[in-house]
Amino acid sequence: MKMTYSMEALELQKKDALIVFAQAGEVLLGSANRSLKKLITEYIKTADFKGESGQVAVFPTFGKFPAGNMILSGLGAPKDFHRALLEQAAAAAVRAGRKAGLKTFAISACSRVKSVSDSDYRVIAGRGACWGTYAFERFMTAAKKQTAPTLAFAGQCPDTAAVRADLKTAAAQGTALLGTADLANLPGNEAAPAAIADWARKMASANKLSCQILGKSELAKKGCGGILGVAQGSAQDAKMIILKHAGTDKKARPIILVGKTVTFDSGGISLKPGKGMGWMRYDKCGGMAVLAAMQMIARMNLRVPVVGILGAAENMPGANAMRPGDIIKARNGKTIEVLNTDAEGRLVLADALSLAVEMKPSAIVDLATLTGAVIVALGSAASAVIGDDQLAKEPTKAGADAGERLWQLPLWKEYSDEMKSDFADISNIGKTGGAGTATAGAFLRAFVPEEIPWAHIDIAGTAWLESGKPYQGPGATLFGARLLAQWVASK
Ligand code: BES
Ligand code: MN
Ligand code: ZN
Q: How far apart are CA 117 and CA 389, in angstroms?
């Protein structure tokens, strides 16, 4: 989506539609748009528009303004506000406008939401507007390609250079999200590990990232028995994908972002029930968020060096598959008793984290659709974060700023005790089955030494939507990409 800056007031913009936010009953417009505010306030009086989040109204201006239409998008009550609601309201406005055949949009260049700075507002609303243009239609043979819409940020701002920089950031992030969403939404037959590796290689060369792919024999040489164990029941070979952003600070130690990229999770021999199994094509979304974040980091030209590692494998119950009870050895030499082949993400991550540790990082953050238990705990309202108290605070703050909420769960000794095995160094499931998300975190900690700052983010509840919302259709959300870029930018 093309984004521009116009110093002319919003109400003077000659566009298909003006987008205005409303926080419950309050229309968020500044003093430069008095007559516009009057029109909208009158509309609200007659229509059933309450400014709830997700509520969008499209109505004509009947020649009273140069713009043909108004799009009013709700943010909900101020007390319930968090930044995802702003991103969603922007996306929902553009989606509703597109449905009505509108192509050119204008929006205020300044934040009217009290708790959001002008700069953050422009990035979040711009990124959201981009996201609102997305539709996954690759396999809809009758779908027509719509022309790309435009968005003007309107009104006088004190710092023009800052506005332009923000729009560049919003466009960079929006582009990264849209491109990666097309990969994330692919079904298992179209997105095997090798296809993800090819995509990553192309993305890397287009964005000046370096890219290294470890195939089956390299993984075997390195002793990566976790990811190879998962892949051995599948006809598709595993790939470990390593992307590097050099950064401008050559002396700094890298930040490492690790993503679970299970291209399809059938459960393996511990087969999942059939109902809903198709959603397990989204089990690659940790890796997808890392891919999008790496692209954002490269395009934003951030200072610190960053490495992205995707452990890509398919979990299938083939003749060669792991059996429950099998004992395998991870890259760091630890042996794992696999009591449930459906707890495969942690096996992939065991190797990916071990490789990350060898790169002497300043910090590691991993993202994974790791446990159904996190959906029980938090639903789709937040992802869980587990790790060092000190480090966990950083992505949590970045998430609050970027509109991706995290909630911390503990990493107590009781949870690592659960993971003890009678026959190997560690078991891949807990003894009692309780605290599924925390025990998974305790398992991962065994592959990252105490002295390395580490945090794990479980996105099983937030990575995709099963049914459409006003701001997006069913499919990948790329949860995590925004907060990772925000976090790295704050370094
Ligand atoms: N990919 C799943 C987790 C998941 C479940 C993601 C539902 C999204 C929705 C993961 O590999 C898994 O199967 N985890 C098991 C772990 C258990 C066997 C210890 C789970 O959560 O049931
Ligand atoms: Mn599984
Ligand atoms: Zn899985």
A: 28
Q: Which atom of ligand 1 is nearest to the CA of 345?
A: 11
Domains in the chain, please, with CATH? Answer: 2-133 (3.40.220.10), 182-489 (3.40.630.10)
Percent of the chain with pLDDT over 90: 94
- Helix 345-358 and helix 436-445, axial crossing angle in degrees, nearest 10: 30
The predicted structure's pLDDT at residue 33 = 86
pTM of model > 0.85? yes
Candidates 315, 337, 342: which one to mutate for ligand 1, based on the most atoms within 8 Å of Cβ? 342
Task: Determine the atom of ligand 1 nearest the C-alpha atom of 428.
Answer: 19
pLDDT single digits (tens) 270-319: 999 999 999 999 999 999 999 999 999 999 999 999 999 999 999 999 99
List Cα–Cα distances, 42 to 34, 71, 73, 207, 310, in angstroms: 12, 14, 16, 48, 53
Q: Find out whether the beta carbon of 436 lies less than 6 Å from any atom of ligand 1.
A: yes
Reading the block at residue 211, the tokens are 């890219």
From start to end of 8-63, where are the E strands? 17-23, 26-27, 56-60
